[in-house]
């Protein structure tokens, strides 16, 4: 018998290594290998030891594959943040920025001067007056004003009010920069803008000289526009910052021009809450929503910012040099004696005055002569008379600190409504004034404290009454010639025909007798 040759162990090892390498091959789709999968399946079967393992083998394999899959779950990664959470994340900065580290204790004599007003005290008085916002919103506004004070060199800050919009609202802060600070910022911005314009202009000129001939320029020039008032004077006396919500960045509004105020008086538009929104109106408004907002703020301030009588006074030096109508600056009267609530609520309103300049029909607080000064060299009487005839009449408005008793009525309605905050406990009441000309404008006075606040849509009162429908026009006058009548009967037609025949015979007989006489 032939001996059976033993299997070669080296060949067996090579076959095993080749088979294992094949099972370890990675899949191009899932990235796993059959060896790893079988190992996990067998491990699960041995660990759980189910009945009828052969029948559930496919289910175990499928479950192992499902657990191995680790795809990206987009729903988990992208969380749906609600509006409340997003709003809280914005306002979280208000509270983080106000965490103060340990500072050395200040003595009672050391007072830190800050332009930040005590908003919570003002909210207490306005709450008694029944106007304003809740305390939480006032507190957030207070923190937002602190951010504004910390980031800008301001001398005076005041919460002007809140203007409502269709998409977002505007919180308005009225500020005054320290002397020279605002001018430096504006000059730096203007210098950068001029450099950009110069660089752009040089490039375009070089390109035009190379490729195009010189374009002829028209000789027509537009009529001279009324120049805007200088910063810190007239309608641009104060600077305004706005934000859509406390915690969002403050944005500075541009200065207002007379053209913008003039057109704003002729239109009425709701605010959207976007400063770059385009104003669609007739007549066309020269600017976007930021300019329209600034014009409305100037108009509201000029008509509704009031203070108790004698709280402010003019300097004696200014009164001696300038006419009363041209006075622009006033100071606080240190000897002011408080006025009782009863006198402040008097319907005559003689104890309240306007402390903002009136805006003239020209759109400025100080009238500008479009003709200019006459030349002194012309001495002829005729020429002087002609110049006087051509010279426009200067516009004059009520001077500063004019009593409210001189305000004009609105369609038979008083311009202001004054009342105490409560009649139940009159000894603790405060005087409250509401503007009927600008709905949403309020003022209060208590002892030596007073403040103005506006919360509204930024629109002036205007009585709306639909025009009466005119009677329909007549195409022609109604008469016998055009009036339709009933058709005549046969007998009436015959009678008319007989009458015409008799008249014709009579005419013929008359003509025959006349011929015989001749």
Low-confidence stretches: 99-104, 106-110, 190-210, 373-379
What is the spatial order of strands in the main beta sheet?
4-3-2-1-12-11-10-9
* Shape designation: flat
What is the β-strand count? 12
3D architecture notes:
This protein is of the alpha+beta class. It has a domain at 113-187 and 225-369 and 393-456. Helix content is 37%, strand content 11%. Strands 4-3-2-1-12-11-10-9 form an 8-stranded mixed sheet, sandwiched between helices. A two-stranded antiparallel sheet has the order 5-8.
Could you give a short description of this structure?
The protein is an alpha+beta fold. Helices cover 37% and strands 11% of the residues.
Summarize this structure as a short list of keywords or feature phrases.
alpha+beta; 12 strands; eight-stranded mixed β-sheet; 518 residues; 11% strand; flat; two-stranded antiparallel sheet
């Amino acid at each position: 018998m032939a001996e059976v040759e033993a299997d070669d162990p080296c060949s067996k090892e090579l076959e095993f290594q080749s088979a294992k390498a094949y099972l370890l091959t990675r899949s191009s789709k899932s990235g796993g290998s059959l060896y790893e999968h079988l190992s996990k399946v067998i491990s699960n079967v041995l660990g759980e030891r189910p009945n009828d393992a052969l029948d559930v083998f496919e289910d175990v394999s499928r479950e192992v594959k499902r657990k191995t899959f680790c795809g990206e779950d987009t729903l988990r990664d992208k969380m749906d943040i609600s509006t409340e959470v997003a709003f809280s994340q914005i306002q979280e900065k208000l509270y983080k920025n106000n965490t103060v580290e340990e500072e050395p204790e200040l003595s009672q004599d050391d007072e830190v001067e800050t332009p930040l007003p005590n908003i919570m005290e003002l909210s207490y008085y306005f709450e008694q007056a029944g106007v304003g916002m809740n305390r939480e919103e006032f507190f957030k506004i207070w923190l937002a004003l602190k951010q504004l004070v910390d980031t800008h060199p301001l001398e005076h800050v005041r919460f002007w009010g809140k203007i409502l919009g269709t998409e977002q609202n505007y919180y308005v802060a009225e500020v005054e920069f320290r002397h020279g600070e605002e001018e430096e910022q504006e000059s730096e911005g203007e210098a950068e803008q001029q450099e950009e314009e110069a660089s752009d202009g040089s490039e375009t000129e070089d390109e035009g000289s190379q490729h195009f001939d010189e374009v002829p320029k028209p000789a027509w020039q537009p009529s001279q526009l009324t120049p805007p008032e200088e910063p810190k004077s007239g309608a641009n006396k104060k600077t305004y910052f706005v934000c859509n919500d406390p915690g969002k960045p403050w944005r500075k509004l541009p200065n207002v021009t007379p053209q913008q105020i003039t057109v704003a008086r002729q239109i009425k538009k709701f605010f959207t809450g976007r400063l770059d929104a385009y104003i669609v109106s007739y007549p066309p408004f020269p600017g976007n929503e930021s300019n329209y907002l600034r014009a409305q703020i100037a108009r509201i301030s000029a008509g509704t910012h009031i203070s108790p009588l004698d709280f402010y006074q003019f300097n004696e030096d200014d009164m001696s040099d300038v006419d009363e109508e041209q006075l622009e600056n006033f100071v606080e009267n240190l000897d002011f004696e408080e006025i009782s609530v009863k006198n402040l609520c008097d319907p005559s309103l003689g104890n309240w005055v306007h402390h903002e300049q009136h805006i003239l029909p020209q759109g400025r607080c100080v009238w500008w002569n479009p003709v200019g000064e006459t030349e002194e060299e012309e001495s002829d009487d005729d020429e002087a008379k002609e110049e006087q005839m051509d010279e426009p009449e200067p516009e004059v408005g009520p001077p500063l600190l004019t009593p409210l008793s001189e305000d004009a009525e609105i369609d038979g309605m008083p311009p202001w409504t004054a009342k105490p905050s409560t009649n139940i406990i009159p000894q603790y009441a405060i005087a409250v004034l509401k503007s009927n000309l600008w709905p949403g404008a309020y003022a209060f006075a208590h002892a030596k404290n007073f403040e103005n606040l506006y919360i509204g849509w930024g629109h002036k009162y205007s009585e709306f009454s639909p025009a009466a429908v005119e009677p329909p026009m007549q195409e022609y006058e109604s008469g016998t010639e055009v009036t339709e009548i009933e058709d005549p009967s046969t007998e009436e037609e015959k009678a008319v025909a007989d009458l015409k025949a008799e008249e014709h015979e009579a005419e013929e007989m008359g003509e025959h007798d006349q011929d015989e006489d001749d």
